Amino acid sequence: MSKKNRIRLYTDVNLEQGGIVECNENQTHYLSNVLRLQEGDEVYLFNGKDGEFKTHINKLSKKSIELAVDECFLPFTSSPDLWLLFAPLKKDNTDLVTVKATELGVSRLCPIISEFTNTVNVRRQRLNLLAVEAAEQSRRQDVPQIDEPMDLCKRLAEWPQNRTLFYLDETGGGKTIIQALQNISGPAAFLVGPEGGFSQKELEFLRNCSYTCPITLGKRILRAETAAVAALSCWQALCGDWR
Questions:
Q1: Which of 27, 28, 64, 168 is most exposed, with minimal Cβ within 10 Å?
Q2: How many CB atoms lie within 10 A of CB 58?
Q3: 177: part of which helix (H) or strand (E)?
Q4: Could you tell me the residue ranges of all domains in the chain?
Q5: pTM for this one?
Q6: Is the pLDDT of residue 193 over 80?
Q7: Angle ∠(182,187,191) on CA atoms, nearest 5
């Protein structure tokens, strides 16, 4: 198998040369019934801490697959220390934000409930599965932490003061994102509001926080999911691991 097209799976067990890993039910179905792999075929595993390891199928049956760990293929590289706070969106757009944020290297996803949030229905288990799949496909070596939804003001009441929070201000009162990111150092986060934007009360609260910085993404009004992807892409290009 070409290492360029290697099959990658996330596992929560420790990885070391000579170890044995039992695939879970979903992984077994995927490797056996979807990919139709056989004993001896290569599979690459990562767990968010030990690196990426080359393994091979040691034992295969209809209900289980055992992987033997051969060697470390890549040392562990963590994603940038970047958080995304976002209001849950209708239909499949919350899923979309989760997948794209994972691909763009976000380390923590924080659903927030604001005054104009359209939905509070967050299926955290589903989002975790989507994040794992996105990490596997994007060759990322870790999976972002996904928090339970929390009220915006309560979330900010516990905010670490050394983490700059860039919030998207639709009123046009913020800096351009290029200006805001030019001299940034240290941990950061982005806050993207719901489709209706932030309320005036929320904007006043954000403006009075010492760790916040309002930003604008230009004259056009972007959908919330588009704004999240655009902001994260700019950060990666200017401050993250795209440099």
A1: 64
A2: 14
A3: helix 177-181
A4: 3-74, 82-238
A5: 0.91
A6: yes
A7: 80
